Amino acid sequence: MRVTQYYPIGSITMPSSWIAFIAGFLVTYLFIRLYFGKVHGARVGDVFFNVVIVWKLSVVLTDFTMVLKNPLSILYFHGGMFGWILGLVVAGLLMLRQVYKEKWKRIDKWSLLLALICWQAVYQIAMTFLNEGSIVVKSATVLLFVAIFVLTWWSERKKVNTVSELAGVLVAVHFLGSAIQGNLLNTAFITTIFIGLFMWGIERATAQPFSGKEEVE
Hints:
The chain contains nine helices and two strands, in the order ββααααααααα. By secondary structure, the protein is mostly helical. A two-stranded antiparallel sheet has the order 1-2. A hairpin with a 2-residue loop joins strand 1 and strand 2. It is globular and about 55 Å long.
């Protein structure tokens, strides 16, 4: 969904996308912590922290002159699309390093995939409520992202499919949703593409030769 609304919170005015992002993180963190446990919840927190901190600090790269003249500008500005993508790349590489180091098992991969899909679903649903737009487009968006979350949760419960397969479905669903919204090249969809690549990388890193159904622990 496109950002059409801004909301005053205290002394600052926040775009609807920031509010949706925060809502997505809070709901996702609580869900993963309650459903999978403290360790998995902490991982989710680390991923979000790494993305956001790199995104904020990347303004040093995108507007070094401004930061040099006014160092406090780091608190108020960010690196835009470049910074966000850089944050995704850095967070992804750090997580892949953790995958190799800790020798992730099935539950580790699925908890992360569910977290990323949960965040994207909550973000998209929140955006439909926070912004103006067609009721048809909003309804289609909600249905698509609820469906992919439910499918992923069901797959995890029934121990069918792989995380890379479900990540691929997420990319396809988000592509359809973005097409319906009339805004294909948006930050949220680009993030989903990175999620797909990220989960494929984790699948490869764990090197488990399963086809269609993963090992039952």
